[in-house]
Structures are given as C-alpha cells and as structure tokens.
Amino acid sequence: MASDRASSNRPLSPHLQIWRWTPTMAASISHRATGAALYAGTILLSIWVFALAQGESVYAPIAGFIGSPVGVLILFGYVWALLFHTLNGLRHLYWDMGRGFDIENARRSAWLVFLASLVLAIVIVASGVSAR
Amino acid sequence: MTHKGTATFIAQRASAVALLFLVIWFLWGLSAHAGAGHEEMRLWLSAPTGWAPMGLLIAVGAFHMRIGLNEIIDDYIDSGMRGVFKLLNLFAAVGAAAIGLGSLYLIAA
Ligand code: HEM
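^ Those are the sequences you sent over. The predicted structure of the assembly is below.
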C-alpha cells in the first residue's frame, strides 16, 4: 500500500514539518491567539472598573502599575490585540458574506490587517504615554 | 462548531458586529482619558455616555468570548474533560461580567 502511494502522482497531504509561513496562515493563528488574549483583557478591564469603583486608595496602586514599563507593555499588547482581532474580524465577516475569499485578496488583506493594527497600536499607546 | 452550530455561529457574528462599535468607542475613550486620575476616570464612567457603552462592551464581550473559548475547547480538549472546561469558561465569563457591571452600577449610582 505504502509503495503504491509513493509511486503514484496523487498529491500527498500537507507534511507536519515541511511547510512555509503564509500571511493568511499567520492571520488565522493570530485571530485565535488575540481572541484568547482579549478574554484575559476583558477580565482585566472588569478588575480595573472594580478598582475604580472602590475608590482612590484601591485605584491608585493599579493605575501606578499600568503606568509602569511592564504595565505599558501589557496595555500595548491589549490595544494591539483589540485592533488586530477587530480588523481581522472584519475580514471574517466579509468572508461570511461570501466575498474576498480568493487567495490574492486574502493575502493582501492579511498583510494590511497586520500593518494597520501595529501602526494604530503604536500611535494610540505612544500618544497616551506622552499625554501623561 | 459542534452542537447547535447555526445558532452559535450567528450569535458569534452578531456579537462581533456589536463589539466592532464598542471597541472603537473604547479605544477612543482610552486615548481621550489617557493619564487621567481617579476622579476624572470616575466622572467619565458615571455619565450614561460612559457606563452604557462600557457596560455593553463588558457584557457583550463576555458573551462573545465564552462562545469563542468553547470553540477552542472543542478543538483542543478531548471529549472527557470538555464539560469541565466549558463550565469553568462559563464561570469566568459570568464572573467577569458580574464584577464589571456591578462596579459600573456603583460608579453610576
Ligand atoms: C472584547 C472584545 C473581544 C473578545 C474578548 C473576543 C474574543 C474572541 C474569542 C476568544 C474568539 C474565539 C477564537 C477562535 O475560535 O479561534 C473570537 C472569535 C471571533 N471574533 Fe472575537 N473577540 C472580541 C472582539 C471582536 C470584534 C470587535 C470582532 C469583529 C469585528 C470579533 C470577531 C470575531 C469573529 C468573526 C470570530 C470567529 C472567528 C472564527 O470563527 O474563526 N471579535 N473572539
């Protein structure tokens, strides 16, 4: 059986280790990763609102942490994940309407979503940091 | 998607459309209030134009993220443990929404 398969010209299934990155694949994986990150982000957002409701003494240390280098890094990750997942979510919704699913369009929109989310995240977080 | 596939699919897309607007509002609000102190943040969310979209973001976000994580659980967790993880997912999503909405109520009241 195995030799039959090897000698025939039928395409083999994708190999586990031999493949290359494509922008569409990266976008697909990132949609899931950012979705999971935003799950954590929503929990953090709730905790932030909770601290805000508790009063100055509870809020101040949390605000201080968000302003620290690690805090800004987490904030940047959250903002980028929001932007990427939202923009890439638009691609999903567009496909669900039955459009834009050809390879060329999918590849171009994947690049665009990575680029736009990164640029917007940098602009938003940098302007926020400089506003302090 | 597994059981009740179509309804879940539609719920995920409908919540995505709602979240699209809420996320834009949120990013704008973050930028507008970056660096603000406790008093100003509280003022922001005590107005209906603040607590309403923030409450929707947390509630609809919790709804959408629970559906999404259930799907991830279906993909990676074998069937024996799925129920346990989905229950934890439900608790986390409802818990996050309850803490967020309860706190917004305290801020607005
Ligand atoms: C609070 C904000 C959000 C959170 C916590 C969140 C979370 C998630 C999670 C955990 C998933 C599952 C990922 C997967 O199955 O691979 C998901 C899927 C999805 N999200 Fe979001 N999301 C948010 C906002 C948005 C927005 C604003 C949009 C649309 C513009 C969106 C569109 C989608 C779509 C279309 C899917 C399904 C993707 C698929 O079927 O492969 N999400 N989301």
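The CA atoms of residues 4 and 38 of chain B lie 44 Å apart. Residues A 31-32, 35-36, 38-39, 42, 85-86, 89-90, 92-93; B 12, 16, 19-20, 23, 61, 64-65, 68-69, 71-72 surround protoporphyrin IX containing FE (CB under 6 Å).

Shout if you want it in another format.
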